[in-house]
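User: Let's play a game. I give you a shape written as tokens, and you guess the letters that built it. Ready? Here's round one.
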């Protein structure tokens, strides 16, 4: 029969148990803030065939309708491999007006790569269209031309986009194609990058301008303020506005945003966006990639895949675009995701036409590191009329198309031209 355990033995064991429990809890919490790693399916080119040149006759649509929402999608069967390959096949339009169709094969598809279409969260509430405008206009050129805001671009058809490689822009498909034809102007499509420096005065164009170091310090401080915007009130913004009003008119004009326009070499749109291909699921494929003729010297933002935004701490998303009601100015906003499905994010971010195509991003830690990194997890599609219950009744929501493992694999293939570069997200 064992005697009592000595205190000198019991204490270390107890302390060790507490340390292990705390470490396990910290790891669980840390996992919530860390980018998950994904083994991706491969999207490979099967064959490419030439098509007749488009008419380029479509006109932009202010609002999209007919989107099949979460409850509506529950009644649809899960797509087969053949269906997915059909939806992920794509058209390419070149700057000379020619067009091709590329069919694809999807390999290494597994359950981890495809989320259930029945995924949904709590019940929805009617979207509040009116109320306090929570958008932030970024009028300071030294601020708007620094990362992450510098990744936002303006599309010549009137939309926004985001740089996802040194020379590739991710935007919404409806900014390029209405489902039947390409928009008027796509043949001469251009992308506008906010200019960083004025041509006038010292410290303007060129690397040796005076005050460069000071600007960088200021930018760093401003970005730190930006990171805290989620908890900051509008009072800080008003304060900044007062300081801007004290500037001379000439100084204010020199800070007015201007764009450097770059021609688009080619555009790629998934067939899932086309009428009659995806039926009510067309909104799930409202994304396109533009390849620029010349890469701008601007940092891009990587793509990311996250299984649930609502389960993240705060569950907030961020995006910046060029809203029509604030011409030439970059507009930033953040908000919580209200609902999410396999392919769509429903939220109440204040937005106006022009912001469609903006890159929706979040910040999480890199695996094994303490460094935070922003990644694009979706494309803001805009205000849409959604068939929520599958009975034909329409409700209005702000909708973003989320980056799924399959879409990541396809977009990555478009960017690199080699699916072997796209095996892990």
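Assistant: Ready! My guess for every position:
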């Amino acid at each position: 029969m064992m005697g009592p355990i000595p205190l000198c033995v019991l204490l270390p064991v107890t302390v060790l148990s507490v340390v292990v429990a705390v470490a396990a809890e910290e790891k669980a919490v840390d996992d919530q803030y860390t980018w998950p790693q994904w083994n991706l399916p491969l999207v490979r080119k099967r064959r490419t065939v030439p098509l007749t040149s488009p008419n380029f006759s479509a006109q932009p649509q202010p609002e999209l309708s007919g989107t099949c929402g979460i409850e509506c999608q529950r009644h649809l069967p899960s797509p087969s491999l053949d269906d997915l390959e059909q939806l992920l096949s794509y058209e390419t339009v070149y700057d000379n007006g020619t067009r091709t169709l590329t069919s694809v094969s999807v390999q290494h598809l597994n359950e981890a790569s495809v989320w259930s279409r029945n995924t949904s969260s709590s019940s929805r509430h009617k979207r509040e269209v009116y109320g306090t405008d929570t958008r932030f206009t970024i009028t300071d050129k030294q601020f708007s031309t620094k990362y992450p805001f510098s990744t936002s671009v303006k599309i010549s058809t009137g939309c926004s986009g985001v740089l996802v490689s040194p020379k590739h822009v991710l935007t919404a498909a409806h900014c390029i194609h209405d489902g039947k034809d390409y928009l008027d102007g796509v043949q001469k499509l251009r992308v506008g990058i906010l200019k960083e420096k004025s041509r006038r005065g010292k410290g303007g164009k060129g690397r040796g301008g005076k005050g460069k170091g000071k600007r960088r310090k200021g930018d760093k401080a401003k970005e730190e303020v930006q990171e805290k915007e989620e908890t900051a009130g509008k009072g800080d913004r008003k304060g900044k506005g007062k300081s801007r009003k004290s500037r001379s008119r000439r100084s204010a004009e020199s800070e007015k945003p201007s764009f450097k326009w770059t021609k688009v070499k080619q555009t790629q749109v998934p067939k899932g966006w086309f009428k009659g291909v995806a039926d009510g699921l067309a909104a799930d494929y409202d994304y396109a990639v533009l390849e620029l003729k010349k890469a701008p010297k601007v940092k891009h933002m990587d793509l990311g895949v996250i299984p649930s935004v609502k389960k993240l701490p705060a569950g907030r998303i961020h995006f910046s675009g060029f809203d029509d009601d604030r011409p030439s100015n970059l507009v930033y906003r953040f908000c919580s995701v209200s609902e999410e499905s396999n392919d769509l994010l429903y939220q109440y971010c204040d937005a106006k036409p022009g912001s469609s195509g903006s890159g929706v991003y979040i910040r999480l830690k890199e695996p094994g590191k303490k460094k935070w990194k922003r990644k694009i997890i979706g494309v803001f599609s805009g205000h849409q009329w959604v068939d929520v219950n599958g009975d034909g009744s329409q409700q209005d929501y702000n909708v973003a198309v989320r980056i799924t493992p399959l879409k990541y694999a396809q977009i990555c293939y478009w960017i690199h031209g080699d699916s072997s570069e796209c095996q892990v997200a």
